[in-house]
Amino acid sequence: MFLVCALLFLLGMWVPFSEASTPRTEVRINQAALDYVAQVGLNSFQDALKMQLTDFLYYQRGHLQRIPVFMLENDISHLSLKLIPNYGIHLSTSGHVGMTFFLERNLQKLRVGITTEADIVISQAAIGTLVLGISLCNTTIEEVNLTYSEDGSKEIWNSIHGYIKAILPHKPCSKLSFLVEGLNVYMGTLIGLRTIGPESQISYSLTHPPTITKDYISLAIKATFVLLGKPIVFPPPPSSFSLPQQVGSSTAMINFGLSQGLFDSIHFLMQKSGSINLDITGQLNSKNNQLTTSVLGNLIPEVLRQFPNSMPLVLKARVNAEPIVTIHNNQTSLWIQYLLDVLAVSSNSAFKSLFSLDMAVDLALNIFMSGGKLQANASLQKDIEFNVTSSNVGVLDLLGVKPLLRSAVKEPLTEHLNALFGLGVTLPSIAKANFISPQVFVYEGYIVVSCGLHFQD
Ligand SMILES: *[C@@H]1O[C@H](CO)[C@@H](O)[C@H](O)[C@H]1NC(C)=O
Ligand SMILES: *[C@@H]1O[C@H](CO)[C@@H](O)[C@H](O)[C@H]1NC(C)=O
Ligand SMILES: *[C@@H]1O[C@H](CO)[C@@H](O)[C@H](O)[C@H]1NC(C)=O
Ligand SMILES: *[C@@H]1O[C@H](CO)[C@@H](O)[C@H](O)[C@H]1NC(C)=O
Ligand SMILES: *[C@@H]1O[C@H](CO)[C@@H](O)[C@H](O)[C@H]1NC(C)=O
Fold first, then answer.
1. In sequence order, which residues have a C-beta less than 8 Å from that of residue 282 and are 6 or more positions away?
2. What is the CATH number of domain 243-447?
3. What is the mean pLDDT of the chain?
4. Buried b (16+ CB within 10 A) or exposed e, 149-180
5. Domain residues of the chain, as ranges?
6. CA atoms of 231 and 240, how far apart (whole Å)
7. For atom 6 of ligand 5, which residue has the closest CA?
8. What are the C-alpha distances in Å from 63 to residues 66, 147, 153, 154?
9. What's the pLDDT at 238?
10. What is the dihedral of CA 383, 384, 388, 391, to 10 degrees?
11. Does ligand 4 have an atom closer than 6 angstroms to the CB of 387?
12. Dist. CA 389 → ligand 4 center (Å)
């Protein structure tokens, strides 16, 4: 959104990076997200359990026989993830696995009930990502039933039982730990740089270990902006930010809390970068071109005197104060003050400044999510205001000139800002995670985006 425009033209600017003053966001992951992860995870776990097991070694008639054993099907029907406050997640899963023993002359199939329980600890890695690890895991073997036996013999039943007790309990835990390691690879992508404009990127990382309650996992996240490979500094630290208990949608899988501090840092960038500056020229070949010295000369005789032949005008709008975003309940506003220089092209193609004005623009922002990015739509909520700051064409009748300037500035300016704000900013995310059905809530001093989670294949 704003920061995009801000960064576009920051080229070359570099200031030392200050860790303490980076903008904050809070991400709350609710039980609903865990339920979705459990549902996706169940399929992965079912697939992971399909394997060939260690051979079953069996003495028969004085020979050691190696019996191949396969576990190719299962109906693990249940996997649940529950939050453990201040710790992590408890995982439990249960169902049956089918085992096939390829005995020399007697194929045997068994159905074994298993229950696996694991505790997953969630912590912060040194690089500022989430890291998951299994701290406890055990599998209980429930009943073992023979479902098929080629010659009906049960002579080696006891040996098979012993084998199952020895081999099987480790498998679900080692597969789980493999899956969790795989998840950590995705968690690591949080800190990846995401392009938000030419040469400009944003990256997120954790500032603290996650806070885990019985209802959610809360992540304190900071944003780092990078331009041409260099981090950008922000003004003094915003006050610390934490979300109230009940915000956004209570049924959402994830709530993102975006602080005033985040928006403040964006103002800073907007001001410094010059990307919201704008030059406005009239439609040179249009009969209706209002931006000429002859049109202006009708209002200011001195202009007509200096430019007897009609010449085109150029309006140069330059931000000359820090833009201010205010976030009120259900209403976000952006106030920008420009110095507007009104110039005429003189006969030798040089620009001559006619007069300058302070110009205040008061915009209502409609903040929304689109294509996974936070974007804004700006519209004027008041007439553009002007005050004369200097004049080379004598005393100005501001009342007379205002309507001309307003109509010349209004459309190009809102179009320019909307194009910039429409580039959008990615929210903190990991690879393959998409945010669906987003809703934006505007509170006093902060914005919450509530959404669902969907993993791409
Ligand atoms: C199995 O693991 C769970 C943790 O997931 C633990 O609470 C339980 O005590 C463990 N059981 C045994 C028998 O170790
Ligand atoms: C095993 O057999 C018992 C009865 O013999 C039955 O109650 C149980 O559901 C069976 N279990 C499986 C996993 O098929
Ligand atoms: C904001 O808008 C929502 C939905 O229109 C409404 O439920 C809520 O009360 C409004 N809040 C304020 C502070 O006006
Ligand atoms: C113009 O001056 C008035 C009075 O000093 C002030 O209230 C207003 O904010 C100024 N407007 C602009 C656009 O600078
Ligand atoms: C943005 O504002 C323009 C004009 O006010 C409107 O036509 C457009 O639909 C808006 N877009 C969104 C996404 O709100």
1. 289, 290, 291, 292, 312, 313, 408
2. 3.15.20.10
3. 87
4. beeeeeebeeebeebbeebbbebbbebbbebb
5. 31-190, 243-447
6. 21
7. 377
8. 10, 27, 19, 19
9. 54
10. -120
11. yes
12. 11
* Residue type (1 letter), 254: I
Number of H helices, E strands in the chain: 8, 23
Architecture in CATH of 31-190: Super Roll (3.15)
Q: Kindly state if the Cβ of 18 falls inside 6 Å of ligand 5.
A: no
Residues in the chain: 457
Would you say the CB of residue 81 lies under 6 angstroms from ligand 1? no
> If pLDDT is split at 50, 70 and 90, which confidence band does 236 have?
low
Cβ(424)–Cβ(386) below 8 Å: no
Distance separating alpha carbons of residues 390 and 14, to the nearest angstrom: 33
Which atom of ligand 5 lies at the shortest distance from residue 368's CA? 13
- Residue 34 to residues 134, 157, 452, Cα–Cα distance (Å): 16, 41, 11
State the CB neighbour count (10 A cutoff) for residue 94. Answer: 17
Identical fold, 31-190 and 243-447: no
The 10 Å Cβ neighbour count of residue 456 is 7
User: Does residue 377 have its Cβ closer than 6 Å to ligand 5?
Assistant: yes
List pLDDT tens digits, range 301-347.
999 999 999 999 999 999 998 889 999 989 999 999 999 999 998 87
Burial class (CB in 10 A: 0-12, 13-18, 19+), 374: buried
Q: Give tens-digit pLDDT for 148-185.
A: 887 766 678 888 999 999 999 999 999 999 999 999 99
Is ligand 5 within 6 A of the CB of residue 439?
A: no
Cα–ligand 4 centroid distance for 385 (angstroms): 8
